[in-house]
Known about the structure:
The chain is mostly helical.
Amino acid sequence: MQVWYFRIDFILVMATATYPPPPPYYRLYKDYLEDPKSAPEPPPPIEGTYVCFGGTYTTSDVLPSLEEQGVRQLYPKGANVDFKKELRSLNGELQLHILELADILIERPSQYARRVEEISTVFKNLHHLLNSLRPHQARATLIHILELQIERRKEAVEDIKKRREEARRLLNESLATLDDQ
Length: 181
């Protein structure tokens, strides 16, 4: 029974815990509604590199090359890469390496490390190709969202026009009814 009461007390304590007080700089914004210029300016955006939770990050959105990452590039270099063809080629190569790994694990299990490294290289190349397509994907997604918004707005305008015509018709009918009386 003591454990049960302890659990109830523990749950009650957990349920009644309060949030910590707000940080002291909230007082800088107390007159913001009356005078928005009374609040301090926001800090400038971070440029370059910064540290967050122990990791170093950069503000530039540049995809590092495979050579910069120390990985052998398995597809042709340059701007005119046929992504579809190269992705299919790398996918086929990956399947072949996985089958070879299965054979090696059966016949010579001690020699699997080289095949695993080759599979890792193919995966890194696949990911790099896919990541280089991210800007195109983002652009296509944005275009799709904007087209949907335009379509919805056109539908809303058509609905407003129909309701306006219906209101005019009802108004003309009611005016005609009043004139007849």
